[in-house]
């Protein structure tokens, strides 16, 4: 029994481009080809893909995943110990996120002092003030909130247009990476995540890597953020979260 690349993509919840990329770099080469030269995946290939996706979820770079899976002397117990360590670390990060999320904020939901006409011109049909009461209740006593209010108090329509253009360009950049099959822990995706973090620090409040990971988790844990972000491309919120996490690990390891 074998499956086509489209079937495998559906099984695994990945894109066909991702599978093509794995084939191109030798990480997951399908065992068979059809008479027409199309990729066909066996049960063994699916087992390997499952392991690849597990390691990816834990934040392993693709090069390290390949080394782990292809090393004939690799100790399965060492793999399990490493997996346990990474899972424990991820749980700790999530716990830190739960404690720190009250200090996190989404820049577009606060400190925007524009007329209704200017808001529509800059943000379209998104109202950046619609969650203002909730934002102030949750984060109004944080340094980050005060810092953002102070910085944005003097922003003009042109300032907000520039910030929105930067955000739109980053969204297009993330979408292009997804469509090219770039893993979220690739250098290109992590660089985009770092530019996202620096943009927040530059325009709103000092956003360290820990706070940035909190924002990333909020993108997937709050359906309002997920719905807004995924409007550009389904799965984008999770992709950004994973790239943000990988970037934080890269800078703190």
TrEMBL record:
<protein>
    <submittedName>
        <fullName>MerR family transcriptional regulator</fullName>
    </submittedName>
</protein>
<dbReference type="InterPro" id="IPR000551">
    <property type="entry name" value="MerR-type_HTH_dom"/>
</dbReference>
<keyword id="KW-0010">Activator</keyword>
<dbReference type="InterPro" id="IPR009061">
    <property type="entry name" value="DNA-bd_dom_put_sf"/>
</dbReference>
<dbReference type="InterPro" id="IPR047057">
    <property type="entry name" value="MerR_fam"/>
</dbReference>
<keyword id="KW-0804">Transcription</keyword>
<dbReference type="InterPro" id="IPR036244">
    <property type="entry name" value="TipA-like_antibiotic-bd"/>
</dbReference>
<feature type="domain" description="HTH merR-type">
    <location>
        <begin position="1"/>
        <end position="71"/>
    </location>
</feature>
<feature type="coiled-coil region">
    <location>
        <begin position="77"/>
        <end position="104"/>
    </location>
</feature>
<dbReference type="Pfam" id="PF07739">
    <property type="entry name" value="TipAS"/>
</dbReference>
<dbReference type="Pfam" id="PF13411">
    <property type="entry name" value="MerR_1"/>
</dbReference>
<keyword id="KW-0238">DNA-binding</keyword>
<dbReference type="InterPro" id="IPR012925">
    <property type="entry name" value="TipAS_dom"/>
</dbReference>
<keyword id="KW-0175">Coiled coil</keyword>
<keyword id="KW-0805">Transcription regulation</keyword>
């Amino acid at each position: 029994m074998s499956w086509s690349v489209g079937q495998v993509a559906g099984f695994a919840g990945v894109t066909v481009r991702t599978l093509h990329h794995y084939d191109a770099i030798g990480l997951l080469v399908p065992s068979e080809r059809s008479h027409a030269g199309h990729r066909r995946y066996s049960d063994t290939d699916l087992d390997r893909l499952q392991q690849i996706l597990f390691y990816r979820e834990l934040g392993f770079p693709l090069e390290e995943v390949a080394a782990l899976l292809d090393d004939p002397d690799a100790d399965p117990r060492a793999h399990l110990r490493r997996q346990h360590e990474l899972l424990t670390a991820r749980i700790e990060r999530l716990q830190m996120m739960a404690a720190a999320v009250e200090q996190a904020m989404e820049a577009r939901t606060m400190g925007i002092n524009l007329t209704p006409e200017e808001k529509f011109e800059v943000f379209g049909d998104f109202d950046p003030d619609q969650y203002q009461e909730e934002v102030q209740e949750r984060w109004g006593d944080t340094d980050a909130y005060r810092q953002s209010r102070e910085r944005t108090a003097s922003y003009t329509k042109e300032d907000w247009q520039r910030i929105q253009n930067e955000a739109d360009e980053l969204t297009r950049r993330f979408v292009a990476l997804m469509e090219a099959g770039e893993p979220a822990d690739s250098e290109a995706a992590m660089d985009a995540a770092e530019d996202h973090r620096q943009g927040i620090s530059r325009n709103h409040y000092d956003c360290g890597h820990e706070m940035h990971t909190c924002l990333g988790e909020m993108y997937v844990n709050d359906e309002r953020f997920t719905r807004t972000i995924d409007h550009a491309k389904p799965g984008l919120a999770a992709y950004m979260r994973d790239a943000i996490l990988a970037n934080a690990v890269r800078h703190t390891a």
